[in-house]
Structure formats: C-alpha cells, structure tokens
Amino acid sequence: MRTKSLLTEAKQIERAVTLINLGARLQVLESETDMSYERLLRLYKEVSGKSPSKGQLPFSTDWFMTWQPNIHASLFMNIHEYLNKAAEMDEIDVVIKAYQLYLEQTATQNLEPLLSVTRAWRLVKFVDNGMLTMTKCSKCGGHFVTHPHEISRHFVCGMCNPPARAGKGKAAGGIQMH
Ligand SMILES: [Zn+2]
C-alpha cells in the first residue's frame, strides 16, 4: 500500500514536471494532479524558474475555429485520437504524449507551434463534452475540429479553402473552388 502510494506520488510529480516543461498553466496542473496548490506553485517556480502567469484560462471555443489555429488543433486532435485508440494510457498522459508528437510534427515542418499545451488540454475537454467535434472534410478527407452538427457532406476544411487574406491562396494551393 505504501509502495503504491509512493509510486502514485512519483508519477504525479513526473506528470506535473512534464506539463510545466511543456508550458502548461498552473490550472492544468491543479486539475490533473492531487497535489496541493502550494506544492504545485513551488514546483512550478522550481522547474520553470518563474512565477506562473495569472488570469483566466481560455474558455471559449472561438480560437479553435480560426483558420491557422484550426489546422494546428486538428493536427493535435488527430494524433490524440490515434493514441487514444492505440494505447492504454491515462487521459492526461494521452494529452501529454499527443502534444509532444504535435511539437515534433511542427518542428519537422518548420512551423511555429501555435497550439499551447493548455489549449490542447482545453480542446480535449471541449471534444469530450461535445462543444467541439471532428468532421471529415468533403474535399481532402482529413478530419478537422469543428462545431458539432457540421454536415460533413458540405464541410470544407481550412487547408482546402484558405481565407483570401492568406494571400497567394489560389495560386499557391492550386485550389479552385469553381
Ligand atoms: Zn480539406
């Protein structure tokens, strides 16, 4: 019993440290570990060398619906869903692993990772509670983060239909709508 709780404790600290290193907000740690606020605060300062930023977490789904963030969020969710099916892990460990793979993906493509780990964590919650979902693009067949009830027969993703302000859009992407 004692060994088990020690292991659990070690695992919790490990998770917390990993999340801090990935840049998670303190609220994520509070929600995903049983550690006290004071301990987490101490750990946060120790690991990151600074005080956690204050203020509210992003609670709106809007950010995920804007063009570039949506592509990043969708990339993350595809990895997340794959891991969720493939491996038996605790929910938060799936988020951590998926986020690490997302960072690798963006690095290999020389992209700035627009999705923070805190937003990635929120995104999974939004999908879990049905505020957001994944819909298949009718053009490319990829799965993208959308509001629920999007009709996939009509849905066209942001990669297939970039906004005009993305510039060079039609020429560069070779995408003609009509
Ligand atoms: Zn598409």
Concise overview:
GO terms for molecular function: DNA binding; zinc ion binding. With 178 residues, this protein is mainly alpha-helical.
Give a written overview of the molecule.
This is Flagellar transcriptional regulator FlhC. Its cofactor is Zn(2+). Its main location: cytoplasm. Pfam families: FlhC. The protein is 55% helix and 4% strand. By secondary structure, the protein is mainly α. It folds into two domains: 2-48; 62-173, Orthogonal Bundle (Arc Repressor Mutant, subunit A), CATH 1.10.10. The chain starts with a helix and ends in a 5-residue tail after the last helix. Residues 168-178 have low confidence and may be disordered. The structure holds zinc ion. Zinc ion binds next to loops.
- Read across the widest sheet, the strand sequence of neighbours is 1-2
How many discrete domains? 2
Global outline? elongated
Q: How would you sum up the major sheet?
A: 2 strands, antiparallel
- Global mean pLDDT: 88
Summarize the helix and strand pattern as letters: HHHHHHHEEH
What gyration radius follows from the Cα positions, in whole Å? 19 Å
Beta-strand fraction estimate: under 5%
Distance between the termini: 67 Å
Structural class estimated from helices and strands: mainly alpha
Keywords: Activator, Bacterial flagellum biogenesis, Cell projection, Cilium, Cytoplasm, DNA-binding, Flagellum, Metal-binding, Transcription, Transcription regulation, Zinc
Pfam families: FlhC
Subunit structure: Heterohexamer composed of two FlhC and four FlhD subunits. Each FlhC binds a FlhD dimer, forming a heterotrimer, and a hexamer assembles by dimerization of two heterotrimers.
Protein name: Flagellar transcriptional regulator FlhC
